[in-house]
Design brief:
By secondary structure, the protein is an alpha/beta fold. The chain has a single domain, classed as Rossmann fold (3-Layer(aba) Sandwich), CATH 3.40.50. The protein is 26% helix and 31% strand. Strands 5-4-3-6-9-11-10 form a seven-stranded mixed sheet. A two-stranded antiparallel sheet has the order 1-2. Strands 7-8 form a two-stranded parallel sheet. Helix 5 crosses helix 6. The longest helix has 13 residues.
Length: 236
C-alpha cells in the first residue's frame, strides 16, 4: 500500500491530534481567527482545510463575491461555511455528524457576524435536512482515505480522516445531486491520498460523472500531494 494512502497513517494522525496538550482555543487561517473546540477536526494540525479554501477560491477575503445558497457536508470547525457567507452567500447550511462540530460552526458564525446567514445542524450527510431543501452549491471536503470496509470507528474524530469501504462516498454521490437547485453544482474535495480509481468505479455504478475543475499540488509533511476540486453530475 502506498504510504500516503495507508489508512493506518491517517488514523494515527487523528489519535495524535486528540492527544495533544497544546490544543488551541483559537487559531488563525487565511487571515482570520477561528474558534476551535476540543475533538473537532483541527485545521491547525491538518492543512487540508486551507487546501479546500484555496481550491474553492475562499482563501482571499478580497476575492470576487459569491452568491446563492451553500450547503457544506462535514463542516468541522465551520471555516468553509462561514467563509462562504462572508464571501456573499445569502443562505449557508453546515452539517456535521459531530455535535461538537455543529457548536463550533455556530461559534465561528457568531465570531464573524454571519449567524443570521449560517445555520449549523447535526446530521449524517443529508439526513438532518428538510426534504424540500435545495442549494446552489453542495460541497464536501471528504474523508478521502479509504479504510477497509469492516473498520469500525473508535472516535468521532476518525470520521474526518478515513471512510471504510467508501460507503459514505457512495451515499454522497448517490444523494447529493438530488439536493441541487436548478443550475446548481455538487463539488467534492478529493486527494491523491485517496483511491481515485475506486471513486470513479463507484461513480459509474451510481450513474454519476466526475470532472476535475481544479487541482493543485500541496505539501503535507514530507510528501507533495495532489488535491482536486471535483464536480459531480448525474449521467442522463
Amino acid at each position: 500500500m502506498n504510504v500516503i494512502q495507508d489508512y493506518r497513517r491517517s488514523l494515527e494522525r487523528s489519535r495524535q491530534a486528540l492527544a495533544r496538550e497544546d490544543w488551541p482555543a483559537v487559531f488563525t487561517l487565511c487571515g482570520r481567527e477561528w474558534d476551535l473546540l476540543p475533538g473537532v477536526f483541527a485545521p491547525v494540525y491538518s492543512p487540508t482545510t486551507e487546501f479546500s479554501m484555496r481550491l474553492m477560491g475562499l482563501a482571499d477575503p478580497a476575492a470576487a463575491p459569491r452568491t446563492g445558497s451553500f450547503l457544506e457536508i462535514g463542516c468541522g470547525s465551520g471555516v468553509i461555511a462561514v467563509a462562504s457567507a462572508l464571501g456573499g452567500c445569502d443562505r449557508v447550511v453546515a452539517v456535521d455528524i459531530s455535535e461538537a462540530a455543529v457548536r463550533n460552526t455556530a461559534l465561528n458564525a457568531e465570531r464573524h457576524g454571519v449567524r443570521d446567514r449560517v445555520r449549523s445542524l447535526r446530521g449524517d450527510l443529508f439526513a438532518g435536512l428538510a426534504p424540500e431543501e435545495r442549494f446552489d452549491t453542495v460541497f464536501w471536503h471528504s474523508n478521502y482515505v479509504l479504510a477497509p470496509a469492516e473498520y469500525q470507528y473508535r472516535t468521532m474524530l476518525e470520521r474526518g480522516y478515513v471512510d471504510p469501504g467508501y460507503a459514505t462516498h457512495r451515499r454522497f454521490l448517490t444523494e447529493a445531486p438530488g439536493r441541487l437547485a436548478p443550475g446548481g453544482s455538487v463539488l467534492l474535495h478529493f486527494s491523491g491520498r485517496g483511491d481515485l480509481d475506486g471513486l470513479l468505479r463507484i461513480a459509474e455504478e451510481c450513474g454519476r460523472a466526475l470532472t476535475v475543475l481544479r487541482s493543485a499540488v500541496f505539501r503535507e509533511g514530507e510528501h507533495e500531494v495532489e488535491h482536486m476540486l471535483i464536480e459531480v453530475t448525474a449521467v442522463s
